[in-house]
């Protein structure tokens, strides 16, 4: 347990409960505040209207256009996004360009470490 | 008589003089009389013929007896040497219909010339076409009005003719080949067109105009790029002008406007430079081939592969999480192994079921029965399994399958399935809300199970699954009760459009499956 994410508010979008709760636990363990986790994009979209977000961990479902909308919106807001996905990086890059991306299965601690790097910690 | 003899003597001395010798040796007494008796005109004409470089034949007397030279022997082919001293009609029966009338005219005093006349000749035993330019001249005895003989001078033009025929045939072949490749190119291509060495289109081809619907004017210069899909234009432009600069040919895939369907279709553009002899580019010829269907198919395939990767990696992540949670219970290794194996098998059954059909849908009843069968249970007097045929998406099936697994495991150890000390009813139905939203209402109800006083701690995983995971990932509403008489679990799952009663299963009656409890 550390404090590499202390004071940071992190949005988590992941539709698998077990993965979401593992990431949730790891982020909290690193001192972060989790917004979510959300299984549905609509919830994520609603949250960014009302909450301050420093970073986001997104599981991108490429079949669902609304996922892209959320990712695009976060990019516009200059929120650091980390994609955690079962797709190949190429597929994510095809839609979102060269963005930080981790390929599943991934350890929750790896997500924490990468987020820390993105947030300049 | 001595003069011709002298001439004959001198000619005999020539290097090639086959006919000289044959004429000298020939017995002329039955036809023209012995050689010594020939008139001076006959002798001299014969000498002239035999010494001449062109094929010549002299036909003498009323029967037109043949005297010919080395050149004419070749024309005669197999008719030589029998043709010497033969009446010409006997020698040439196959062309007598042509020659007969000619000789009539020459005998009447006329000189007859034919250019490139076709004479089918029996050469090498077969009749072949041969062409000749011939002059038929009348020969008279001095002071005699009668024509005594016909001198035929021949120039064979067969070789010229054959060459001409071959050239014509080649030209025809070439024209056919051209037509063939043009038809082929037009058949497989959307458009064929040309551009100048700088890549500018001077005049859009008819096929380009027909395909894209552009006018000749709007397609000229770089205007043709307006028919390219806006998203692909920059890519096509740079590929095109890079190729013009490097002179290396174009091979580019992009979407091209199709006038007939008012849509864009994927095309493969190939362009190659046509060069002058010195290597300089004269112009570019370009061809577009429709690759739309292949391209769409390939994209679908890539999409499917990506989805598969997504699924496989997700399920591995889920397995990892399930494992971590199973280990976290801190129970004995055997117990952990047992539980994890059971959960892994449940996930595996869902995966197998999902991949069994192309649509990837799973039948709820099969899911439940498979789970129960895996622990040796099937419906009977104390176990009711009842509900309509309902197809579930992989995601719903995975969650529900795991829930059924946890409930079954619990029931085997502490509940209705434990030595069948109670009854179990597993039922489900489809519900439609006033707003039209459909949901699956699933219940697991145990009866008459000897009281389990407290919520069993081993249900930590199952409880979390039913009370937290299903509401989270399926937006389900759940109730889990450990009460006197057994477990009661209600799960209400909203269904997506593709889930529910399959079209083929609506008529299937299920009442007969009901077993009273």
TrEMBL record, chain A:
Signal among keywords: no
Response regulatory domain residues: 9-119
Domain of life: Bacteria
Keyword terms: Phosphoprotein
Chain positions with 4-aspartylphosphate modification: 59
Matches recorded under InterPro entries: CheY-like_superfamily (IPR011006), Sig_transdc_resp-reg_receiver (IPR001789)
UniProt-listed GO biological process terms: phosphorelay signal transduction system
Descriptive protein name: Response regulatory domain-containing protein
Organism: Novosphingobium lindaniclasticum LE124
